TrEMBL record:
Protein name: Glycosyl transferase group 1
Native species: Emticicia oligotrophica (strain DSM 17448 / CIP 109782 / MTCC 6937 / GPTSA100-15)
Keyword field: Transferase
Gene3D superfamilies: Glycogen Phosphorylase B (3.40.50.2000)
Record GO terms (molecular function): transferase activity
SUPFAM superfamilies found in the cross-reference section: UDP-Glycosyltransferase/glycogen phosphorylase
């Protein structure tokens, strides 16, 4: 691999935000090996209108070009990354008619292509690696537009089960995967599924920012706070969690993260031993993690969750704390490190076992495991995949 080759990544999330994002974490560490242009969330005109009305935090001036759309972010690893905010595009996910959708998708893709080309010329990116991170619809029209040596699709969720994009996500992803050079997925379930479409499919699991979550737990400290850190949405088994909270009134249940499903909060927040903190900036999560004695992953078992490799599991383990989880996905990587339940009754039993646990060797093993799964190591894995592909 040439030193400091170029990567363009068209990502789904915005760079900043009040939660940790796998794409942002991974691309930050890829700056150790590449010059990186991260093209963030494709804001639509609806985002602009909502921003003017004060209903979201979209960077309106940057979207509209009143501020420089390209900015340089200095990272904690000592590197920097170029981040591009695109001009607003037409909102089209709601459109059912495939012909109309395809036509407007081409228009939107042209806007994206023009903006990226303008910046890559300025940055002197000549023969980049193009990573499409969960934006397969745009990928269909952007392939080979930037003289890229490789096009890689980064898939970290099952798009056909994602409510916000399932209308067009499944067919666009299927078509896109057939024309890319490789697919990189984040879980074993996704690997098995996507490899049937694209034989060049590789596994790079989610990692952890060890620096944020490395406050080691004291096994002699009484465990009184049971916590969940992450997005609060329809993945959470409300009935399971409600039962735990009611049956264990002497413990506090702390939920840290942005609330995407208000039903979860409204059902649980009426109970006296529950607290929702709301969204936190990534750098604040370590402070919240210090408060928690046991980490929960109370996910439902369904077609969406079975494809997940949860970010939070290594975040919990980085401090050595016990983790209690449903068996929503293939969690064999964590065998012997976490408490895994098969039903609601066993979940409560596992939780009570975690409360009385006092095993320093197990705490150390969890921390060591999480350190192996750092985002820096995940970036090395992806770099090796890219090397392998470019040498073919």
């Amino acid at each position: 691999m040439d030193s400091k080759a170029d990567i363009i990544c068209l990502g789904l999330p915005s760079w900043e935000g009040d939660y940790l994002k796998s794409t942002v974490q991974l691309l930050s560490e890829m700056t150790n090996f590449y010059d990186v242009l991260y093209v963030e969330y494709t804001y639509t005109w609806i985002d602009v209108i909502r921003g003017f009305l004060g209903k979201n935090t979209a960077p309106i001036n940057r979207i509209l070009g009143k501020e420089d759309r390209l900015r340089i972010i200095n990272l904690e690893n000592g590197n920097s990354i170029n981040v591009l905010t695109l001009p607003p595009i037409i909102p089209i996910n709601w459109i059912s008619n495939k012909v109309i959708y395809k036509y407007l998708l081409k228009l939107n893709s042209k806007i994206i292509e023009k903006s990226i080309k303008k910046v890559t010329q300025k940055l002197k990116f000549t023969n980049p690696i193009f990573i499409n991170a969960f934006q397969p619809n745009f990928g269909l029209n952007l392939k080979k537009k930037f003289n890229e040596k490789l096009t890689i699709y980064y898939c970290y969720d099952e798009i056909s089960e994602a409510q916000w994009c399932k209308k067009h996500g499944a067919w666009t992803e299927f078509e896109f995967m057939k024309i890319v050079d490789a697919v990189v997925v984040s879980s074993k379930a996704l690997l098995e599924k996507k490899k049937k479409i694209q034989t060049n499919t590789f596994l790079v699991k989610n990692g952890v920012d060890v620096g944020i979550f490395s406050d080691k737990k004291d096994i002699n400290k009484p465990k009184t706070i049971i916590g969940y850190i992450g997005t609060i949405d329809d993945r959470i088994d409300i009935e399971l969690v409600k039962s735990l909270i009611k049956n264990m009134p002497e413990y506090k249940f702390l939920f840290v993260g942005r609330v995407m499903d208000k039903t979860v909060e409204s059902c649980l927040n009426i109970l006296p031993n529950v607290e929702f903190t709301g969204a936190k900036q990534p750098e604040e999560l370590g402070i919240e993690m210090k408060k928690i004695d046991i980490g929960l992953i109370p996910f439902k078992k369904n077609e969406f969750t079975k494809n997940i490799y949860p970010l939070k599991i290594n975040e919990y383990l980085a401090s050595g704390m016990p983790v209690v989880s449903t068996d929503f996905a293939d969690l064999t990587d964590f065998e012997g490190l976490i408490y895994k339940s098969t039903d609601n009754k066993s979940f409560e039993e596992m939780l009570k076992m975690a409360i009385i646990e006092k095993d320093q060797l197990l705490v150390d093993a969890r921390i060591g495991f999480a350190q192996l799964n750092s985002w820096k190591n995940r970036a090395v894995e992806l770099t090796h995949i890219i090397d392998e592909l470019t040498e073919k």
